[in-house]
Amino acid sequence: MDLVRLIYTSTITEQFDIEDIARILKVARLNNKTLNVTGLLSFNRQFFLQCLEGTRQNVNQIYHKIATDPRHKRPEIIAYQAISKREFDSWNMGYLQNTESLRELFYQHTRSINFDPYKMNEESAKSLLLDIRDEIKRAEAQ
Protein backbone atom coordinates (compact mmCIF):
# COMPACT_ATOMS: atom_id res chain seq x y z
CA MET A 1 0.00 0.00 0.00
CA ASP A 2 1.38 3.40 -0.99
CA LEU A 3 1.24 5.80 1.94
CA VAL A 4 1.55 9.58 2.12
CA ARG A 5 1.96 12.08 4.94
CA LEU A 6 0.35 15.49 4.71
CA ILE A 7 1.10 18.25 7.24
CA TYR A 8 -0.93 21.42 6.97
CA THR A 9 -1.84 24.47 8.97
CA SER A 10 -4.91 26.68 8.97
CA THR A 11 -6.41 29.51 11.00
CA ILE A 12 -9.76 29.42 12.74
CA THR A 13 -12.54 31.60 11.36
CA GLU A 14 -15.14 33.72 13.09
CA GLN A 15 -17.57 30.78 12.76
CA PHE A 16 -15.31 28.66 14.99
CA ASP A 17 -16.67 28.01 18.47
CA ILE A 18 -14.40 26.55 21.16
CA GLU A 19 -16.75 23.53 21.44
CA ASP A 20 -16.04 22.86 17.75
CA ILE A 21 -12.73 21.23 18.66
CA ALA A 22 -14.57 18.35 20.37
CA ARG A 23 -16.89 17.99 17.37
CA ILE A 24 -13.96 18.09 14.93
CA LEU A 25 -12.12 15.37 16.87
CA LYS A 26 -15.20 13.15 17.11
CA VAL A 27 -15.94 13.34 13.38
CA ALA A 28 -12.25 13.06 12.40
CA ARG A 29 -11.74 9.96 14.50
CA LEU A 30 -14.79 8.27 12.99
CA ASN A 31 -14.03 9.25 9.37
CA ASN A 32 -10.31 8.53 9.68
CA LYS A 33 -10.98 5.08 11.14
CA THR A 34 -13.28 4.27 8.22
CA LEU A 35 -10.61 5.42 5.73
CA ASN A 36 -7.65 3.93 7.66
CA VAL A 37 -6.08 7.38 8.07
CA THR A 38 -4.01 8.13 11.16
CA GLY A 39 -2.63 11.39 12.45
CA LEU A 40 -2.37 14.09 15.03
CA LEU A 41 -4.10 17.43 15.52
CA SER A 42 -2.56 20.35 17.37
CA PHE A 43 -4.61 23.44 18.18
CA ASN A 44 -3.74 26.57 20.16
CA ARG A 45 -7.06 28.49 19.96
CA GLN A 46 -5.93 30.29 16.81
CA PHE A 47 -4.13 27.83 14.54
CA PHE A 48 -4.47 24.20 13.57
CA LEU A 49 -1.38 22.15 12.79
CA GLN A 50 -2.26 18.66 11.66
CA CYS A 51 -0.69 15.56 10.19
CA LEU A 52 -2.62 12.98 8.18
CA GLU A 53 -1.19 9.61 7.09
CA GLY A 54 -2.80 7.06 4.81
CA THR A 55 -3.33 6.31 1.15
CA ARG A 56 -3.01 9.25 -1.22
CA GLN A 57 -6.70 9.05 -2.16
CA ASN A 58 -7.95 8.95 1.43
CA VAL A 59 -5.61 11.67 2.73
CA ASN A 60 -6.53 13.91 -0.21
CA GLN A 61 -10.24 13.29 0.41
CA ILE A 62 -9.96 14.31 4.06
CA TYR A 63 -7.79 17.34 3.32
CA HIS A 64 -10.28 18.55 0.70
CA LYS A 65 -13.03 18.48 3.36
CA ILE A 66 -10.81 20.39 5.78
CA ALA A 67 -9.80 22.98 3.17
CA THR A 68 -13.47 23.70 2.39
CA ASP A 69 -14.67 23.65 6.03
CA PRO A 70 -15.98 27.13 6.99
CA ARG A 71 -14.23 26.88 10.39
CA HIS A 72 -10.82 26.96 8.63
CA LYS A 73 -9.23 29.76 6.64
CA ARG A 74 -5.85 30.06 4.94
CA PRO A 75 -5.21 26.30 4.70
CA GLU A 76 -1.59 25.80 3.71
CA ILE A 77 0.21 22.52 3.06
CA ILE A 78 3.56 22.46 4.84
CA ALA A 79 4.58 18.97 3.69
CA TYR A 80 3.25 16.26 1.42
CA GLN A 81 5.33 13.19 0.75
CA ALA A 82 5.30 9.47 0.12
CA ILE A 83 6.27 7.50 3.24
CA SER A 84 7.24 3.90 3.93
CA LYS A 85 5.74 3.79 7.45
CA ARG A 86 3.42 5.81 9.63
CA GLU A 87 4.72 7.93 12.50
CA PHE A 88 1.27 8.51 14.02
CA ASP A 89 -0.15 5.00 13.76
CA SER A 90 -1.47 4.89 17.34
CA TRP A 91 -4.48 7.09 16.68
CA ASN A 92 -7.07 7.88 14.07
CA MET A 93 -6.59 11.41 15.40
CA GLY A 94 -4.33 12.08 18.37
CA TYR A 95 -4.79 15.35 20.25
CA LEU A 96 -3.01 17.22 23.01
CA GLN A 97 -5.02 19.97 24.66
CA ASN A 98 -3.67 23.51 24.88
CA THR A 99 -1.80 22.89 28.13
CA GLU A 100 1.43 24.22 29.55
CA SER A 101 3.30 21.23 28.12
CA LEU A 102 1.96 22.00 24.62
CA ARG A 103 2.90 25.67 24.94
CA GLU A 104 6.40 24.62 26.03
CA LEU A 105 6.72 22.41 22.95
CA PHE A 106 5.56 25.27 20.72
CA TYR A 107 8.22 27.51 22.27
CA GLN A 108 10.98 24.87 21.99
CA HIS A 109 10.31 24.49 18.27
CA THR A 110 9.71 28.12 17.33
CA ARG A 111 11.58 30.12 20.00
CA SER A 112 8.60 32.45 20.17
CA ILE A 113 5.78 32.84 22.66
CA ASN A 114 3.53 33.61 19.68
CA PHE A 115 3.16 30.26 17.95
CA ASP A 116 2.72 30.68 14.19
CA PRO A 117 2.84 27.41 12.22
CA TYR A 118 2.85 29.33 8.91
CA LYS A 119 6.49 30.14 9.64
CA MET A 120 7.43 26.48 10.06
CA ASN A 121 9.11 24.37 7.42
CA GLU A 122 8.53 20.67 6.83
CA GLU A 123 11.29 19.54 9.17
CA SER A 124 10.33 21.76 12.10
CA ALA A 125 6.61 20.99 11.77
CA LYS A 126 7.20 17.24 11.69
CA SER A 127 9.62 17.45 14.62
CA LEU A 128 7.06 19.39 16.68
CA LEU A 129 4.30 16.90 15.84
CA LEU A 130 6.55 13.98 16.81
CA ASP A 131 7.28 15.64 20.16
CA ILE A 132 3.55 16.20 20.69
CA ARG A 133 2.99 12.52 19.86
CA ASP A 134 5.56 11.52 22.48
CA GLU A 135 3.98 13.86 25.06
CA ILE A 136 0.56 12.28 24.44
CA LYS A 137 2.04 8.80 24.88
CA ARG A 138 3.67 9.88 28.17
CA ALA A 139 0.35 11.28 29.41
CA GLU A 140 -1.50 8.11 28.39
CA ALA A 141 1.03 5.95 30.26
CA GLN A 142 0.45 7.78 33.56
From TrEMBL:
Parts forming coiled coils: none
Xref: InterPro entries: Acylphosphatase-like_dom_sf (IPR036046), BLUF_domain (IPR007024)
Domain BLUF: 3-94
Listed GO MF terms: blue light photoreceptor activity; FAD binding
SUPFAM superfamilies: Acylphosphatase/BLUF domain-like (SSF54975)
Alphabetized PROSITE patterns for the sequence: BLUF
Pfam families documented for this protein: BLUF
Protein name per UniProt: FAD-dependent sensor of blue light
